[in-house]
Amino acid sequence: MTKPLNPLLEAQPTTIFTVMSALARQHEAINLGQGFPDTEGPHDMVQKAADALLDGQNQYAPLTGLPELRQAVAESNARFQGLNINPDSEVIVTSGATEALAASLMALLEPGDEVVLIEPLYDTYLPIIRQLGAVPRLVRLQQPDWTLPQDALAKAFSARTKAMVLNSPMNPTGKVFTRDELTFIASLLRHYNAYAVCDEVYEHLTFGAPHISLMTLPDMRERCIRIGSAGKSFSLTGWKVGYITAPAPHAGGIGKGPQTLGFSTAAKRQPAGPGGLR
Description:
Elements lengths: L6 H5 L4 H12 L15 H10 L14 H15 L9 E4 L1 H13 L5 E6 L5 H7 L3 E6 L9 H7 L4 E7 L11 H13 L3 E5 L24 E6 H4 L8 E4 L2 H14 L11 H5 L1
Parallel strand pairs: 2-3, 2-4, 4-5, 5-6
Antiparallel strand pairs: 1-7, 6-7
């Protein structure tokens, strides 16, 4: 008899996205279970990626990403959110936003730390947090308008709270948190000296609602980790290119997460990003 595997991983179900996509193929059904766009991404970006395959540079990319992509991420932060970001010390390119989430939470959490999350939520959050030995504290939005219950959220915070995961624009509800809601969240983070991991992969898919990054609010610049996704922004989900924006004092630690997960993001998936972001 061999020794058992990690019980947390063994007990984790196959992600619902994989299950639903398999069922859609089996029954030749329209797949509403996974984020497959109706159209391909911009042709000029695809062409740039195709050209990059033949440029004779097929070795490892820098651990934190190609400099030109990190520069474009910094410029995008300035253009859309007014954030002044140093591309050399505050941007990390990852193999998709899921790796960005894992690396950020790995850097922040120790066993026993508490993490506040808002339901309904993306199904990757809880497994990562539990695998790190941290404790999730869940608060559910109120239907039918997906209202943030401020009393319940305040009660979820405590002296043991290390971080909050904030997904805005939100998957799966589509909710875009308002400035008033973000201001209330910021007050709790400030009071309990907690961090925020801001999953903002849908920042450009708001259908007219203004997206405000929590990082732009007073005193939030140094306690927020902001995550974006080229796959979501440009309908190129299979490319798996994400990026982290984090304050310099924390980015170094966060950047050590990807080096133990995949070392560096595939070099050929990165050259098209700068043009798209610009």
